[in-house]
Amino acid sequence: MTRTPERATAPADRPETLADLLGGRRGAVDASLPPVAFALGWLLGGHSLWGGVGTAVLTGAVLAGWRLHRGGRPRSVLIGLLAVCVAALVALRTGRAEDFFLVQLLSNAASTLAWVVSIVVRWPLLGVVVGAALGQKTRWRRDPALLRAYGRGSWVWAVSYVLRVAVFLPLWLGGQVLALTVARVALSWPLVAAVLAVSWVVVRRSLPAGHPGLRHPVVPATAPVEPAGK
């Protein structure tokens, strides 16, 4: 019997949210497990780098297999496993346990820049992601109200990446492996859940009264309609 892919859906008695559309919480939870496994393997192995790396990769592989079995998207699952393997290779290459978190630090710095630039050039990434999830392509961008709302909501995500960099950087510079692990978990699914909720509120409140919502962009007519008979 073939399993259907896991999808977050909104109960019939409440409005659809960004968490329902993007399902970001599950991915954040998955991403936090290999770092925890790394810290446990490193600690229990007497600060053994190979112990931490082996435990993290094994956890990532088991998690990937489970998600594929449950109908997860192969591309997303394999990207997650690849990220764990790259982090492990970096740590082995440098010989420093804290460098297992270096890829995460750099990716958050890059994400900060990407989100800010997307807002400045009026292609807010929140709109790009939600528009793709809804199959709208770029139609949302022709709705001035949605464009403005997505821009404001994107600032919430940009700030979340700034927060991660501000926390991770000093811990990484100080070689605080256990503190990095705690921060990695605390700033994964709890932060993602908070950002999804806050950005959703920002987007909803930015839309004018009577707007039909994210699924129904209001595209202004490009030219006036001529009266009949002309």
From TrEMBL:
Pfam families attached to this UniProt entry = DUF3159
Residues spanning the membrane: 39-64, 76-93, 113-134, 155-173, 185-203
UniProt keywords (A-Z) are:
Membrane, Transmembrane, Transmembrane helix
Q: Quote the InterPro entries the UniProt record gives.
A: UCP010219
What name does the UniProt record give this protein? Answer: DUF3159 domain-containing protein
Organism of this sequence = Micromonospora echinofusca
Task: Identify the taxonomic lineage of the organism of origin.
Answer: Bacteria, Bacillati, Actinomycetota, Actinomycetes, Micromonosporales
